[in-house]
Recover the amino acids of this structure.
């Protein structure tokens, strides 16, 4: 490979004098956990003198951090792996192509047998990369997909490769013990474990000192966060939220994902008590019918879910709410599906992520239930939930027109360089014309003048004197 090409992209700022072990390029798919994990991987590799590049052609190592949540997520990754393999052949190079994350864990050695990767490393084995990479670089296939009961990467300060310098994720736990019938995550991420709260608070402080103003505490089910110290002291999720919120009054704190069966009143009260804990909850409901919820093994009923929403609104009246919906789960009838639509109306979600059910090998549903809703029906149901949510989001945004919100500026708008973008505490995206003094990481007051179903449009208001 040509060293001049490499030179252009290499970031050697940290350790100028040490001979690099190689360059790496990393691409990330899937959820926020994977984004955070790629930052851990980058930190591990940099410490061992691999340098990040932003062009796969210039990389000695191409890593794809993958998602297995739905069939189409895996197909996308396969497409990318084929592309990288073609690139490798074209360049005639000894590039290593590595698969990380949930597909690595799910498919293990099969990925080597398919000859689309040289290296397979599961989510709990990233500390082993510095040992595995030289092996793979010398032409031996390398695999580590061991899951752990302890690993939280608590001591590793993530390297934020593609950050806006304003918002960051902090991983507070790993794994999931819930075993929802449709979900592959417990198989790919292993048992649930919580990270030491002191390391979480330290990371929040470190981010704040670097200029970050918005941190999201992430885990598959943050409400079951629990850490027990050596002296028997116990920290639950609400306690952790409060501790992080106390880092600085102008550090916004968000969290994701909450599980309806575990979300406590204490969490809602903590949200209400700290102005810098954002007034936004992502609370996936999945379906609106009790029999479907039971088959999904979600551990709550429709009424329980609606009651959780009432509880949140009681404590945090200005809270915005988003959700996840799966349509066409095993045995879902038309009438049962319509209960999902009715629940969406009743909850008046501000935002939703909506999916067609995709059977995942090894899950309870794949083993014991029939994936019997035809694809055409799933598609039609998906279109209906999307159309309904668009209307609900528009209604929600229209209610904000005329109001003024404190907005954390994130950067220039992607569509129009004269415009800037930021978010409200309720996680709504606001676009507004630039004014002197506007900069990423600053707070501005923006009056909302107009909206679409996806965005609020406004004008900066002079600061109150
Ligand atoms: N831990 C989170 C969800 C993680 S996965 C929670 O429990 O809410 C993100 C979303 O993907 C899920 O909420 C669900 O809506 C969707 N999902 C998971 N498995 C799926 C499958 N097999 N088919 C379609 N959607 C799925
Ligand atoms: Fe999957 Fe359920 Fe765990 Fe969420 S709570 S990751 S949907 S098993
Ligand atoms: Fe996908 Fe794994 Fe996240 S399956 S959604 S990347 S935990």
């Amino acid at each position: 490979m040509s060293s001049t090409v490499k030179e252009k992209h290499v970031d050697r700022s940290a350790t100028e004098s040490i001979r690099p072990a190689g360059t790496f390029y990393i691409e990330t798919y899937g959820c926020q956990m994977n984004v955070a994990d790629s930052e851990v991987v980058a930190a591990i590799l940099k410490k061992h003198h691999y340098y990040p590049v932003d062009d796969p052609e210039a990389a000695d190592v191409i890593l794809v951090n993958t998602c297995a949540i739905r069939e189409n997520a895996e197909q996308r990754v396969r497409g990318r792996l084929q592309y990288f393999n073609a690139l490798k052949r074209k360049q005639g190079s000894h590039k290593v192509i590595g698969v990380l994350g949930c597909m690595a864990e799910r498919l293990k050695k099969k990925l080597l047998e398919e000859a689309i990767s040289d290296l397979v490393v599961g989510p709990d084995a990233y500390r082993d990369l510095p040992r595995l990479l030289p092996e793979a670089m010398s032409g031996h296939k390398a695999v580590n997909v061991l899951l752990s009961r302890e690993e939280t990467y608590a001591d590793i300060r993530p390297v934020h490769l593609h950050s806006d310098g304003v918002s960051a994720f902090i991983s507070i736990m790993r794994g999931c013990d819930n075993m929802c019938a449709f979900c592959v995550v417990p198989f790919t991420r292993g048992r649930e474990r919580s990270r030491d709260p002191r390391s979480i608070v330290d990371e929040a402080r470190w981010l704040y000192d670097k200029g970050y103003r918005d941190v999201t505490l992430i885990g598959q089910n943050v409400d079951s966060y629990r850490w027990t110290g050596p002296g028997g002291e116990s920290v639950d999720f609400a306690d952790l939220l409060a501790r992080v919120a106390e880092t600085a009054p102008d550090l916004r704190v968000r969290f994701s994902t909450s599980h309806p069966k575990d979300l406590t009143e204490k969490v809602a009260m903590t949200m209400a008590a700290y102005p810098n804990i954002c007034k936004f909850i992502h609370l996936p409901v999945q379906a609106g019918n009790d029999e479907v919820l039971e088959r999904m093994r979600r551990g709550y009923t429709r009424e329980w879910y609606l009651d959780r929403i009432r509880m949140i609104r009681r404590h945090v009246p200005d809270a915005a709410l988003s959700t996840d919906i799966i349509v066409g789960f095993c045995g879902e009838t038309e009438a049962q599906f319509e209960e999902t639509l009715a629940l969406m109306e009743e909850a008046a979600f501000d935002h939703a992520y909506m999916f067609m059910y995709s059977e995942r090998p090894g899950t309870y549903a794949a083993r014991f239930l029939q994936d019997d809703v035809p694809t055409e029906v799933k598609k039609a149901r998906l279109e209906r939930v999307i159309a309904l949510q668009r209307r609900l989001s528009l209604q929600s945004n229209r209610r904000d027109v005329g109001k003024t919100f404190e907005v954390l500026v994130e950067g220039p708008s992607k569509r129009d360089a004269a415009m800037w973008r930021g978010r409200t505490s309720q996680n709504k995206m606001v676009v507004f014309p630039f004014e002197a003094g506007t900069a990423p990481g600053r707070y501005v007051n923006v009056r909302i003048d107009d909206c679409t179903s996806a965005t609020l449009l406004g004008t900066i208001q002079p600061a109150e004197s």
